[in-house]
Amino acid sequence: MARHGGGRGWYGKVAGAALGVTVLATGASVWTAQAGTEGNASPKATASATPGSDVKAVEATIAHSSEAGARGVNITIDDGPDPKWTPQVLDLLREYGVKATFCMVGTQAQAHPDLVKKVVAAGHRLCDHSVSHNTAMDKKSQSYQSQQILDAERMITEASGGVRPMYYRAPGGAFTPYSRQLAASRGMRPLGWNVDSKDFERPGTNAIVATVERELHNGPTLLFHDAGGDRTQTVQALRRILPRLKEQGYVFGFPVH
Questions:
Q1: For a Cys staple, 66 with which of 24, 102, 139, 220, CB 3.0–4.6 Å?
Q2: Alpha-carbon gap, residue 75 to 134, rounded angstroms
Q3: DSSP annotation of 189
Q4: For residues 134 and 140, what is the distance between their CA atoms, to the nearest angstrom?
Q5: 138 catalytic per annotation
Q6: Which residue out of 64, 124, 133, 225 is catalytically annotated?
Q7: Which of 78, 128, 138, 199 is flagged as catalytic?
């Protein structure tokens, strides 16, 4: 999600559940949310989040574009899965024949593995959104960042039945050169966004739709949420946005990997 509210927000109650910390070189690095230069050499994890898996490194630059090309639109859904809202979002995506990328919080995936499996079964892609959604991760040590990224990767992979996340989206866009390189070394492309629908703030369905239409020229990757509170407006907005974009000749796809 975008940097709304700061701190750990509604995930504060689970933020203390740090599982399987992987200790790497210490030292914090600060990064702006959506841009920057490459870091130094790729960090090497001392323990695999999925032991024995054959992981292929990917680019560490933050992805914004679409595999679907110039008229491509990427729907990305953050912070779930949630037992009330994720099924509604899945129903809408199925109704309009749209595939999306679900950026899951590790604790949420661990709590709702049935929903993670439903997301995968429907042909959507998974994204690591950290363990506890700390939007100040870019101010934390490298050991903290590695724990948040690698433990979430493991939790999501286990919940899915073995399907690994293809992307890593830093909470609030709080990337660092270190976190991007670490994620990329695990085969997870850092994932940004071009259009923040502001749905998390619940400004009203009309306002969410208007924001997407006004800012779509900024690029193809759209940010929505399926957890973190009442997502009625998000569901209503998607019901209007998805067919409208199709009518305008857009093609729904996935972010470049």
A1: 220
A2: 23
A3: E
A4: 10
A5: no
A6: 225
A7: 78
- For 232-241, the pLDDT digits (tens) are 999 999 999 9
pLDDT reported for residue 54? 78
- Comparing C-alpha atoms, which of 176, 185, 191 is closest to residue 39? 176
The number of C-alpha atoms within 13 Å of 101 and in the hemisphere containing its C-beta is 34
Q: What is 34-83 written as a DSSP string?
A: S-----SSPP--SS-SSTT--------SPB-SBTT-TTEEEEEEES---T
CB contact at 8 A, 99 and 72:
no
Q: 203 φ, ψ to 5°? A: -80, -5
Q: Would residue 64 show up in a list of annotated catalytic residues for this protein? A: no
- Read off the tokens for 99: 């595939």
Q: Which residue has the tokens 């009309």?
A: 206
Q: Which residues of the chain have pLDDT under 70?
A: 1-53
Q: Which stretch of DSSP H or E encloses residue 102? A: strand 101-104
Tell me: the pLDDT tens digits for 46-100?
333 444 457 999 999 999 999 999 999 999 999 999 999 999 999 999 999 999 9
